[in-house]
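Reopening: structure tokens for the zinc ion complex, inputs below.
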Amino acid sequence: MSHLSLEVSLQREMQGASPIIVTSEGNTAGREVEERSQCIIQGLKRLPQCHFSTVQVSDRYLDSILQQIHHQEYLGFLAHWNRALVGEELLFEYPYVDQGIQPDTPLFAGVYDLSREGARTAIAAAQQVVKGASLSYALCRPPGHHAGPAWLGGYCFLNNAVAAVVTLQESGISPVGLIDIDFHFGNGSAAILASRPDVWFGSIHRSTILSYPYKEVQPASDRQTFIPFSHSPSSEEYLSAVDELIKKALDFGCGAMVVSVGYDIIINDPHGGWHLQPSIFEEIGHILAQASIPLCLVQEGGYLLTALDECAYKFGSGLLGCDQK
Ligand SMILES: [Zn+2]
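Re-run output (same inputs, fresh job):
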């Protein structure tokens, strides 16, 4: 199926400077910055089939979705520190972490406001699918797939991809699939979806022993498929894993699919470690498009600023069925 257009949902602008999100290691390379989104937009703008719109989702609807994903107490904790921290203050100590791992991502002033805009963007992209788009893309930040029912970590505070899944479900689409192709395992998405019987979840990632969240993980049920790599996969190995996940999602009967997109699988990403080239995304896009079901792409990681433009351009080209060769 050749998709005619890609509807891109742009995050609402925040007041003042966009915060730079670091980890407790204080990493200078690979910080989570607003510039990431700008680079991705540049890549997508090279494709005339991309239509850009700024999101419009009410606070009321946003809250109704977030309350289905995260515990109330956790949302209250984020809301509290959102205002209690001021200026450059960071909070490194808190109890809301995934089992067996240490806090790695500090809270900052406005953390809840910014994270809510990310989730709002993902919801808006899902609503584009509900309205009939076959291809939509949420350019949200910070990423979300490490955020669990009541925990944050790895730059993630609210789970944007699951917010998109729930939005699709609310419109009556069932079952829904979530495929996570970020370099890192979406421990938050897997945990939240474990209790949702009508969602299929698949992930391709670097071994969770070798990379975040640095612990062993197991699928919660036969509705979850994990494909970890301990070595840097060849493009053939990687693409056949993508193919396998899509077949399983379609076998499950998914009527639409959310894709957690991470550009950190490519060579030289500061948080990565594999040797795949940006051009892999054209092939990934082709394979995803062949599923012939509506796709809602949600931005997760990808921190090599000089490559994000090309990754996004290749991905869009593959999804749209453009012949770039
Ligand atoms: Zn990642």
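The chain has a mean pLDDT of 94. The first strand starts at residue 6 and ends at 10. Marking as resolved unless the reporter disagrees.
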